[in-house]
C-alpha cells in the first residue's frame, strides 16, 4: 500500500514547475498561448507524456499526468497539457493509416498543438481550438480528427481568455481524414481528461491560496493584518481542507485509470467532484478575502479565477460527476472499491 | 535510485490479516447490542468484551507483543478498524486509554510505568478517564487552574481543583490529565502530567447527563488528593509537551480511523436502497437525498484515502504535526453529515430511538471535543497557511488576567 506520487513523478513535476516559474509568469499568462512555451514544454517531455515511446514520447500514464497537470494549473499555463495526454491515448488506440502516427510524433516533438472535445453536446465550443493544429472531436461513439485549418474554427469569447475557445464546423470535421468507431478509446480518454482536469484544478487552487494568504498577511485594516481575523482565517482553512482531501482522491483516480480497474470511471468522477467543488470554494473565498482588488483585471487572482470557472465545468461539472457516482454506487452492481 | 511505485493493492499478508480478524469477529461479536457503556450494566458488559478482545490479542493489535498487542503495522491496524466497525462490534469503552493516553505512555513512560499501566488498560480491567478541561479552561487549555503542590515527605504531590467533561468519568477507574505545578502566568510551561486513582481519598465524581440522557462524562473534584511520584508521566513542568503527544493522536490518526465512517457510509447506502425500495420505513421522497447520500459516502472514501496517504508519509519518515487539525475538522463534519443524512432519510421515523439517532447525537459532539473546530481552523490557518496570530486576551496579554 503506497498512496503518493512516485519519486520519478515528483522529480518530473519539479522540472515542469521550474520551467513554468521562469516562462509562465502572470504577465506571460496574460499574453495567452505561446508556441515557444509549447516547444519548451515538449523539450522536457510534457507534450509527449503519454505518447508511446515508439512515437517519440515518454509512454507514461495518468500518474505522471496528474503531477504535471497540477503544475500547469499552479502556473495557470494556457497550453493544452491535459489535452495533449488525452489526444495521445486516443491516437495510440486508433487503428488507422499514418495520420494518427504522424500526429503522435508531432505531439511529442512539440510541432503540433491539439484541441480535443470528447464530452458535452455536439454544438459546444472546443477549448484550445483557436491555437490548435489539429482537432479531435467525439460524437457519440465516433471519433473525428482533422487539421484545424480545415475545420472552420471561429473564435468564441470565453471567460478564460487563454483557453482559445472556438466553434468548429462539425460538417467539415465529418469529412476529415480520421473518422473511426472508437467507443472504448473515447470513454477511456474522457476518463483521463477528467482526472487531468481535476489535477489542474488542484494546482490552481493552491496558487490562489498562496496569492490570498500573502494578500491577507500584507493588507492591514484596523491596525492589523486582515489574515489575523478568524473570519478570514477560517475561510482559507476550509479551502486548504478541501484541496488536501481532494488530492488523494485524484491520485487514486490516476491509479485506477492506469490499471483499468472496474471502479476507474467512478473514481475519475469522484476526483472531478472533489476538485470542482474545491475550486469553486477556493474561487469564492479567495475573491472575498481579496476584497475589491480581487474584482479587478489587474489583480493576478483574476487569471486563476477565470481558469477555474471554465475548468470546473469542463470535462463534466461536479453535478454531472456526482450523478455518475450515484449511478454506480446506488445501481445494481457497484464496482468494488480501490483499494 | 529505485522508483517507488504507487500501489493501492493490499499485500497477501494484509489480506490474510483481514480474513483472520473478519473470521474472529464473525464468531465473537455479540448478536444483541450491549447496553450503553455509560450505564453500570453496560459498562461491565463492555469491559467483558474488551477482555475477550484482549485474550485474542485484538484489543491493541498495533502495540508491541509484550504489552498485549501483535505488532501490527499501521495498514493492518486500519484494516482491523475497517473490519471491526463493519462487523457491528461494540464501541470501545477503553478508547480514551488505548488511543489517547497510551501514546503518551509509550513516548514518555518509564519501563516500570509501561509494564504497570499498559496491560490492564488493554485488557479493559482499568478504564481511563480524561482530565483535560476545567470550568475556566476549555479551548484555552493552558489557562487551567487545578494545582499540584509538592509533598516531599511522602515523595509525591497533592492535587486540588476541578476537571470537567471527563469522558467515562462516571464509571472509570483512573484519570490522566494536566495540573499546574508552576504559576498561572507561566501558562503551558508550568504544567505536569499526572495519573490519578479516582478511588483515592479526596476525589469526588459527579456524573453529567449528556444529550442522549446517559452520564457519558463527569465532573471530577479533587481536594488535596495525594499522587505518588511514580504516577507522574514525564518530568514535572513538562506536562504540556507530554499532553501534546496525546492530543495529536486524538485529532490525528488513531482515535478516528476511517473504519467507523466507512461502516456508517455503507449502512447509509443500504438504508437509502431499502427506504427507496419501500423495505424500510422512512421519508416518502428518498430521491431528494440522493446527492447527500453520495456525498457522505464519497467523503468517507476520501477520508480513507487521505489516511492511506498519511500512513505512506509516516512510512517515508515524515511526522504528523498541525496536519492533524485538517483531519479533525474533516472527520467530525463527515460524521455529522453521515448521520444527519440518515436522519433525513428516516423522515418521520428519525425521532424514534435507534442506532442512527444514537450515532447522530454522538456525532453532534464531534466538532466540539478534541479541540473545537474553531480552534482547529485557527491552527490550520496559523501553522499550515502561515497567517498571523490573533492578539489574545484583554490588553493583548496572553490569557493572563482572565
CATH topology of the domain at 184-329 in chain A: Butyryl-CoA Dehydrogenase, subunit A, domain 3
Shape of chain A: globular
Largest interface: A-B, 49 and 54 residues
Please summarize the sheet with the most strands of chain A: 4 strands, mixed
N- to C-terminal distance of chain B: 57 Å
Oligomer: heterodimer
Total helices of chain A: the number is 12
| Derived structural class of chain B | alpha+beta
Helix and strand succession of chain A?
HHHHHHEEEEEHEHEEHHHH
Structural class of chain A: alpha+beta
Report the principal-axis shape of chain B.
globular
- State the helix count of chain B: 11
Taking all Cα atoms into account, the compactness measure Rg of chain A is 20 Å
Helix and strand topology:
The complex is a heterodimer of chains A (339) and B (402).
Chain A: H1 7-23, H2 26-31, H3 35-43, H4 62-75, H5 81-93, H6 98-109, E1 114-117, E2 134-139, E3 142-147, E4 154-155, E5 166-167, H7 170-174, E6 178-181, H8 183-218, E7 220-221, E8 224-225, H9 230-258, H10 264-290, H11 301-313, H12 318-329
Parallel strand pairs in A: 1-2
Antiparallel strand pairs in A: 2-3, 3-6, 4-5, 7-8
Chain B: H1 12-28, H2 40-55, H3 74-86, H4 95-108, H5 111-122, E1 128-131, E2 147-151, E3 156-167, E4 174-180, E5 191-197, E6 203-208, E7 217-228, E8 232-233, H6 239-251, H7 258-276, H8 290-315, H9 324-346, H10 355-365, H11 373-384
Parallel strand pairs in B: 1-4
Antiparallel strand pairs in B: 2-3, 3-7, 4-5, 5-8, 6-7
Helix pairs in contact in B: 1-3, 3-7, 4-5, 4-6, 6-9, 7-8, 7-9, 8-9, 9-10, 9-11
